[in-house]
Design brief:
99 residues; 4 strands
């Protein structure tokens, strides 16, 4: 089950923060937390209690910039034709092994 909740991240209230329940435990995406932390590091400590970040309103361009800093390859940067070719080779290889 997936959901969204309000959390306090680095002293800043964050709404619509994504999570997933696996085996009865809540799990949070590392990338999501890092995105919020990149924002909160620029907020003065004394102002943090007065700030609320709505995770759903963080622009995709900011998410992309954080993923790049983390070294996460963008899906749109992956060559789809190359991926299909590799998938086909894998299917052919597996088919040969099954015969």
């Amino acid at each position: 089950m997936r959901g969204k909740k309000t959390m306090n991240i680095d002293g800043v209230r964050t709404t619509n923060f994504p999570y997933e329940v696996i085996d009865g435990e809540e799990h949070y995406n590392l990338h999501a937390a890092v995105v919020v932390e990149h924002i909160t590091e620029n907020i003065p400590r004394e102002a943090k209690p007065a700030i609320t970040i709505d995770y759903d309103k963080i622009p995709e361009s900011f998410h992309r910039a954080v993923r790049e800093k983390m070294g996460i390859k963008q899906p749109d940067a992956i060559n789809e034709a190359e991926t299909r070719e590799r998938e086909q080779k894998l299917i052919e290889f597996l088919d040969k092994g099954a015969k």
